[in-house]
Amino acid sequence: MNIKKDFSLKSYNTFGIDAKANFFAQVTTVEELREILVSKDFPTKFILGGGSNMLLLKDVDALVIHIAIKGISIVSEDDNHAVVKVMAGENWHDMVLWTIDHGYGGLENMSLIPGNTGTAPVQNIGAYGVELKDNFLSCEAVERATNKLKTFSKADCKFGYRESFFKNEGKDQYIITSVTFKLTKKSHKLNTNYGSIEDELDKKNIKKPTVKDISNAVIAIRNSKLPDPKEIGNSGSFFKNPLVDQHVFNQFSLENPNAPFYKISETEYKIPAGWLIEQCGFKGKRYGDAGVHTKQALVLVNYQNATGKEIMDLANTIIKAVEKKFKIRITPEVNLIQ
Ligand code: EPU
Fold first, then answer.
1. Does residue 23 contact residue 4 with C-beta atoms inside 8 Å?
2. 200 alpha carbon to ligand 1 midpoint, in Å?
3. pTM here?
4. What is the pLDDT of residues 111-131, one digit of tens each?
5. Out of 107, 126, 253, 331, which residue is the most buried by the measure of CB atoms under 10 Å away?
6. Which domains are present in the chain?
């Protein structure tokens, strides 16, 4: 295996942070991964997927193992469903387009999410009313303690809003190598409830949308609001939308009657962090090369040469300002690597 030294990770993280890996290796098969995991030459190992949901705060003093295991296969199918297994290193969006080209439904609302398929379950990615868990059947992961491949059912993964077993109890203990989805071949469960999707379909006068139409609508919306990491470094939403209880919500809505919100359960509400941040005046602000995206305040951006620390300093300033103004504490959604 080719192991590189003092390797810049700039093009391996969508934030475009120029942190270095002490050592860097790329694995293209599960066997290669298991082999390098037991290597005694490198006591500390760091697993890197699509690098789309992390902020590198300093150089990584470890062997960085980049998961580049590819492959998409149809495991089984009947008249109604197809079960599709996707290897971890497949780019998420390319994989979604593959499913759509095959006429399969389920992942269309999650078109254009950056990153790789293997990391998608870790934070149960989601967009426009659909989450990964809605079409998830199982995943396989190498257990680091035993180097064995294990299968996780949906229940094992304990999915929540941008949460899973792999982000909590299982953190750093497993490396996901493949994800298996159950997708529809007909009677697709289209999810067009999200306001902007309906507007986009109306614009094109589409009355009976196909899976492809929805994917195109989502791509158009995302392109209009979210920065393309190839042009401006970013990790999508930097923060989670805070979940507040009835008591906090009552007070908040009394003081902010025009604020948008989503009712999650009888007693829980989600308040868009993007709105809170915009109200504090940060939208479109730039501090050196670190900034808040002009069209979506939930997204922090690296205009060119910001360091992870500069982005984090901005994030902390925002957290403090939001807490002061609204008495609500927002927390990062991206993984902070320190
Ligand atoms: N808003 C503002 N100002 C802003 C941004 C948003 O006032 O700068 C308001 C909007 O007007 C709207 C509400 O906040 O009323 C919600 O905004 P939006 O529809 O853009 O969605 P979001 O809650 O900000 C979440 C996800 C996104 C996902 C979108 C669409 C989280 C943390 N983020 O954002 O996910 O694309 O919904 O489903 O849940 C990501 O995770 O990286 C990501 C981009």
1. yes
2. 16
3. 0.94
4. 999 999 999 999 999 999 999
5. 107
6. 4-67 (3.30.43.10), 72-225 (3.30.465.10), 233-337 (3.90.78.10)
